[in-house]
Write a structure and sequence with these properties.
Elements lengths: L1 H12 L5 H6 L15 E2 L2 E2 L4 E2 L4 E4 L4 E4 L3 E3 L4 E3 L4 H31 L8 H4 L12 E3 L2 E3 L1 H34 L4 H6 L11 E5 L7 E7 L6 E6 L2 H10 L5 E4 L10 E3 L4 E4 L2 E4 L7
Helix pairs in contact: 1-3, 3-5
Length: about 290
C-alpha cells in the first residue's frame, strides 16, 4: 500500500507535456476550425502555438500537447504519456498486488471464522475467549467498534467481492497496456483508427536466391508490421524459358503464403511490386535481381 501511494503521487506530479510546450509555455489560444482542419498540423500545435515533437497529441481534457500521448486517466487525474508511462504502469502493478492482498486477507478471515471456532488459535476475538464462552461471545470489531459477528462477516464478504472485482479490472488494463506496448501502439492510436492501427506505410521487397530463370526463388516483403510476410514460389526452367521468349520483361505472379498480411492494395514504385488480394505481381526490368 505504501509503495502504491508513492508511485501514485509520482505519476500525478509528473507533467507529461511535450518538452517544447514546457520550455516555451506560451498562452493557449482557442482552436479556429475555420482556419485549421486539425489541432496539430505539420507538427505545429495551433493551440499551444509551438512546434511539437513527433508522436505528440493534444489532450482536450488537459488542453496541452502530450508527448507519446496514451490517454487521459481520470484515476490519477493526469495524462499518460512518455514521461510518466513507466510510473503509471508501476501504479497499476502495485494497485493490483495491494488489492490481491486485501481480498486474500478478507477471504482468509472469513474462512477462519468457521474453522477456528473450536481451536481458537488464529483469530484474536476467539483467542480472547475463556473455555466457558462460546464463539458467539467473541468480540468482533470494525474500526475499533464492537459489532455483531453477522455485520463483521458482511463487511468481509463485501471487501472480498469489491477487491476481487477491481483487481480483475486492473489486471485487464495491465494486459491491454502490455499488448499495446508489444505492438508499439497506444490506447489513443487504437481508438482513433482501430481498422488502420497496423497498416504498413511502406512496402519494400528484395530477392533471395538466383535469377528469375532458376528453378526456384523466394521473395520476402517487409511491410513495416511486427511480422514479416514471406512469399515462396517455384517455377520450372522450361516454363521460365517459354515465358522469357514471350515476354522480355519476364513477369510472374506469386501467391501469398502468409495470410496474416492480407490488406488493401499497397504499392512501391521503386521495387515495382504491388500487393493486392494476396497476390504479388513482379515485373522487374532485368532478368536478374
Amino acid at each position: 500500500m505504501l509503495a502504491h501511494v508513492i508511485v501514485h503521487v509520482i505519476t500525478i506530479s509528473i507533467d507529461p507535456s511535450d518538452p517544447r510546450v514546457l520550455r516555451k509555455k506560451k498562452p493557449k489560444i482557442k482552436f479556429d476550425e475555420m482556419k485549421h482542419q486539425h489541432v496539430i498540423e505539420n507538427q505545429h500545435c495551433n493551440i499551444c502555438q509551438v512546434n511539437v515533437k513527433a508522436h505528440s497529441n493534444h489532450c482536450r481534457v488537459c488542453n496541452k500537447c502530450v508527448w507519446r500521448f496514451d490517454y487521459h486517466c481520470h484515476f490519477v487525474n493526469n495524462c499518460i504519456g512518455g514521461r510518466n508511462y513507466r510510473w503509471y504502469m508501476a501504479t497499476l502493478g502495485t494497485a493490483f498486488v495491494a488489492l490481491c492482498l486485501i481480498s486474500g486477507l478478507a477471504v482468509t478471515e472469513f474462512t477462519f471464522f468457521f474453522t477456528d471456532q473450536t481451536n481458537r488459535h488464529i483469530l484474536q476475538p476467539y483467542r480472547d475467549l475463556n473455555t466457558l464462552q462460546t464463539y458467539k461471545d467473541a468480540n468482533f470489531k470494525i474500526l475499533y467498534q464492537s459489532v455483531p459477528y453477522e455485520a463483521w462477516l458482511t463487511v468481509l464478504a463485501f471487501t472480498f467481492t469489491l477487491g476481487t472485482s477491481v483487481a480483475v479490472a486492473v489486471l485487464g488494463l495491465i494486459c491491454v497496456h502490455i499488448y499495446l506496448t508489444s505492438h508499439k501502439s497506444t490506447i489513443f492510436k487504437s481508438l482513433e483508427n482501430p481498422s488502420k492501427a497496423y497498416v504498413p506505410v511502406k512496402v519494400e521487397s528484395y530477392m533471395s536466391g538466383a535469377t528469375l530463370n532458376s528453378g526456384s526463388f523466394t521473395i520476402e516483403l517487409v511491410t513495416g508490421l511486427p511480422w514479416v510476410s514471406t512469399f515462396h514460389t517455384t517455377r520450372s526452367a522450361k516454363n521460365s524459358a517459354k515465358n522469357s521468349a514471350k515476354n522480355n520483361n519476364n513477369e510472374c505472379e506469386l501467391k501469398m503464403v502468409d495470410e496474416t498480411c492480407s490488406s488493401s492494395a499497397q504499392s512501391d514504385n521503386s521495387s515495382m511490386c504491388s500487393l493486392s488480394q494476396g497476390v504479388v505481381s513482379l515485373a522487374p526490368s532485368t532478368t536478374s535481381l
